[in-house]
Structure formats: C-alpha cells, structure tokens
Amino acid sequence: MPIAILLLFLVSSLIVKGQNYFIGAASYSLPDPDRPGRNVQVKLYYPAQISGNNAPWAVGSFPLVSFGHGFAMANTAYQNIWEYFVPRGYVMAMVDMENGIFPAPSHSDFGRDLLFAARRLLEIANQDASDPLFGKLNGKAAFMGHSMGGGSSVLGAALEPGFPDAVVGLSPAETNPSSISAASGVISAFLMLAGEKDMVTPPASHQLPIFNALGSTCKVYAEIKGGVHCFYALPDLACDFGETTSGFQPEIDRAQQQQATYDIVWPFLEWKLKGAPSAPFFYVLGDNRFNVIHGCEPGVGFLETIFASEDFFVQPLPGQLQVKVSESGHLTLYDRMGRVWQEGTLFPGQVHTFTGLPAGLFFCLFQSPEKLRVRKVLLP
Asked: What integer pLDDT is reported at residue 63 of this predicted model?
C-alpha cells in the first residue's frame, strides 16, 4: 500500500491522518510493592518527534501495549513488532523479565509482570508530572505476547478481569500454572493467532484449548495458513533451534507470516484501543490467509457496510471517489487495513470528491448527529 497522500475535497480543506511517528526509547525499572525485591524491567518504545533514546514524545496521547517475549528470547527479537506499531501511534512496553533458562522462568511471575507494568505505567502517565510519560497514554491498554509470553498474558489478564481492554496472543503456549485453566477468568477482547504448521506449540494442544476456555464475549481465533511458531519474530537462536529440531515444515516465509500478523492485529487494536470502525477488522477475517473461528459482535456501523441508506451516496470511479450526503456530518476515509487517509466535515446537497486514489477497498464512515453510516467501496 502506498503512503498516504494529500487529497482535497471540493468544499473542505482536510488533514491527512497517516500517522508515521518516529520511535523514541526509554528504560523503566518498576519496583512492585507486592513482591519485595521484584523490579520489573521495561524497555519502552513510543511515538516521538525524532528517533532515539529519551527523544521528545510526539504530540498526543496513545494506547499502551504490554508485551511478553517467548521462552529464552530477548526483546530485541521483536524489533519488527515495535517498528511496525510505534509509528502507527502505539506505546510498546517490552517487559524484560524471566528470559533465562536456568532457573526455569516463572510463568506466574511473568504474567504478574505484564499486568503490573501496564498498571504502573498508566499510573505514571496519570499522576507523575515530572516524568516524560505524563499525559501521554490515552487510558487504553492491551497485552500482547508470543509463546510463553502469550500464555503469561492469559495468566496476567485473569488476575484482573476486565483489564486490559484487549489481549493479542501470538501462538500462546500452555504454561505452569495452566493458561488453559486460567482462560475462563479472562473477559478482555481476545485475538488469538496460531500457526497452522506450528510443531512447537501445536494449535490443537495449546491455542485452541486456551481459546475455547476463554471467558471473553469477544474472542477471535485466526490460524495463519502455512505459519509456524517462530516467524512472528526476527531470527532468534533459541526459538529457531527449538523449531528446527521439531521437524517444522513452513509453507510461507517469515516476512509473509509477519505481514499476515500485522494485517490482522492492527485493525483489531485500532478498533479496541482507538475506537476505529470494526469493519476493516472483520473484512480481514475473510482473508484467505487465515482459518478463522470467531465469536465477536462487529458493533455499531458494521452492518451498514451492506445495508447503507440512500441518503449517503458513494460513487467509486477510476482514481476517485464521489460522496454526497443529505445532512452535515464528519466523514473519515479508511483503507482496508483501517488506516485513515483523510477526514473532515461534509455538507448536504454537495458532491465531495476524493481524487488520486489507488485501486482497492476503502471504507467511508460518516457520522452525523442522527446516526453512524459506513459504506464499503471497491475502487476500480
């Protein structure tokens, strides 16, 4: 997908919202008063005005993602994850705990670390005016974790039902104590990813039992066709050695699995942490790269992508999109991945034209005082 370009309405001057922030970095050591001597180490990556350690924050406030790494893996193996999400307006808290082999990591402590890090960082953002984090979090949070970190995310979310707002599991593993047993206590919205060819944590004995046990009213299982266990991350000696010796036979490469991951996780987080329309996420669920099970209501506006009223007219043409409305309101144009191309105020009785658009799927969301409308259109 090309980068967002400046488009003009005939009657409105609109602002492109393609969020491409620089990446700042900061380190936090967070003492947990409930576990004397436990200092939770976090490497924070955040939207910044320039790149670098302790760089000035970008203007605005952002959702927080508390991330748990896999067994014996360093956070640096997930550089691809933060390099994707931070420029798009997310704060990634990479929890750097329980990453050794001997003694064996404590999954219980790791789950508590993910929860404590998120809660403590939100507290700093709300209360500590001396910290650069102050005022920079929007109050929404998610857990995300791979393998051991995914299973520990389940343990952490079960400790405080309803927090965080969402959980994303990247081939989460059964843990000790059992993440399968703990899953019934998780009620956060949950996106479960699995690799069809994962021989390290086979979906039948890890992801599917966790998914089936979840107490969440919104839960989605997306199995990446041909995907394996380690391809969510960069090449990593510990993970790749374990996978190679398991006899894995990937049918897609690392870049393809990572792209599939981004393509489904981003619209889910945009929906749950930023209040974006649910339609792009549910559209991706129909992508033939995934085997999907879901029990999740799309929410307001999604069905109107099919049953749109005649008072919201959208005409796709080669290279452009014409929109006409019967009342004043605010229109936002999203691409198929939920990325905002442009937004602004529309007025009744006038034809508004987007020009210079590439071929592809777009969603037009129009919010008037009376109702929310969404149209799904395919530009030739």
From this structure: 98
Runs of H (alpha helix) within 42-147: 79-85, 107-127
260 plus 324 within the same structural domain: no
Q: What is the structure's pLDDT at 344?
A: 76
Pairing of strands 166-170, 189-195: parallel
User: What CATH code is carried by the domain that includes residue 323?
Assistant: 2.60.40.3080
pLDDT at 330: 82
The sign of the CA dihedral 89, 83, 136, 121 is: positive
* Shared domain check, 220 and 83: yes
Closest CA to 201 of 163, 227, 182: 227
Same domain (yes/no): 219, 364 = no
- Which helix (H) or strand (E) segment holds residue 237: the answer is helix 237-245
Strands (E), 159-229: 166-170, 189-195, 219-224
What's the rounded Cα separation, in Å, for the pair 268 and 93?
18
Predicted local distance difference test score (pLDDT) of residue 4: 28
Same domain membership, residue 325 and residue 180: no
Residue 24's beta-bridge partner residues?
A: 46, 52
Residue 337: the pLDDT is 66
pLDDT of residue 3: 27
Peptide bond into 203 cis (omega under 30): no
Q: Report the pLDDT value the prediction gives residue 372, as an integer from 0 to 100.
A: 67
pLDDT, position 303: 38
pTM above 0.85, yes or no: no
Q: Are 88 and 67 in a shared domain?
A: yes
Half-sphere exposure (CA, 13 Å, Cβ side) for 21?
27
What is the structure's pLDDT at 258? Answer: 97
Cα dist. 71→81, 119, 127, 191 in Å? 17, 24, 34, 21
Strands (E), 62-188: 62-68, 91-95, 137-146, 166-170
Q: Which residue has the tokens 């200092």?
A: 39
**Is residue 65 a contact partner of residue 269, using CB atoms and an 8 Å limit?**
yes
What phi and psi, each to the nearest 5 degrees, are found at residue 85? -85, -35
Instruction: Report how many domains make up the chain.
Output: 2
Angle at CA 232, nearest 5°, toward 227 and 236?
A: 110
Q: With a cut of 50, list the residues of the chain below it in pLDDT.
A: 1-18, 300-309
| Backbone φ/ψ region at 197: left (φ over 0), alpha (ψ -120 to 50), beta | alpha
| CATH label of the domain that carries residue 37 | 3.40.50.1820
